[in-house]
């Protein structure tokens, strides 16, 4: 017996959608394009199949606190601290300046955390806390020029409008998300204050009405809901670059120090083929994406034996951007295979097959094999 169209419509989630019901039941079938890693605050991952797919709805979301409501009409960005001119800039003021558009990769420093052994605390991201978008705004350097930074400046602190109290380690009440970046990086062409993402105004999740983009650095520097810029005369020691988003640096004098996470490390990720797509004698394409932060990717290599032998793949990425890579492969015998990809940047840095524990739970770019079966 087959179900009639009416029976199909009347049963299950589709019927609920058709009836216009808005419940958690319907939202589960509303073709949510992202994987929910945490419901509140919003933390959403791009599925592997959509990695670097165009479009803002496929772009991962990483938020530490509830999304703040910022009124675009009354919005003003203040710039103060170690400057000659304290500024208050509306969105219109910023839009009157010379604007730029750039395609830039944004990767969370915790991207790939699920691959850490032993399991680390924090959100268990797979490969999908990364994306690339076209960002439109003004260089932060141009704003700092207007403010006339005094000599002897240290970090430029970007402050978000979102806030909350953190329990462990306990903060002195609610704190805003903020992040300091050294003046030299703040003045680079790739450091922007942006209002558009993919030619549309920023969405609330991605930091409307104004956010920072710090090209080539991990996402924690790309402060969303930007409300305030404070220039300090020394490095900033806020929560999000001391307790969080810091890594161990082994100083030559034997005094390990925690330093803020900065530059994105080179990475190549395999997106296809999946587990069962390979057959003996049948040519296949191994493919994925690669990026290397401030550097370009000069080489991608692939191994089908877990990293013993490597051959070249096609694909190179420009600085700040990602690129798709492909490699042709004909399986010779049935059984399990371990696919691995690795890239090398133009500074000669190749991804390591070992995890560096000094990086704590951040900067995760060691090799992650994909196990497949040849039929
Ligand atoms: N104000 C504010 N800015 C923020 C964050 C935040 O929680 N609050 N998260 C940061 C982190 S850790 C990342 S990885 C990126 C994620 O940007 P997206 O949500 O647009 O993908 O935003 C950064 N900027
Ligand atoms: Mo992040």
From TrEMBL:
Q: Which Pfam families match?
A: Mo-co_dimer (PF03404), Oxidored_molyb (PF00174)
Q: Give the Oxidoreductase molybdopterin-binding domain ranges.
A: 64-239
Mind telling me which PROSITE patterns this protein's record contains?
Answer: TAT
The Moybdenum cofactor oxidoreductase dimerisation domain extends over 267-319
State if Metal-binding is listed as a keyword: yes
UniProt keywords, alphabetically: Metal-binding, Molybdenum, Oxidoreductase
- What cofactor requirement does the entry state? Mo-molybdopterin
- Keyword Lipid metabolism in the entry? The reply is no
In Swiss-Prot or TrEMBL terms, this protein is called Sulfite oxidase
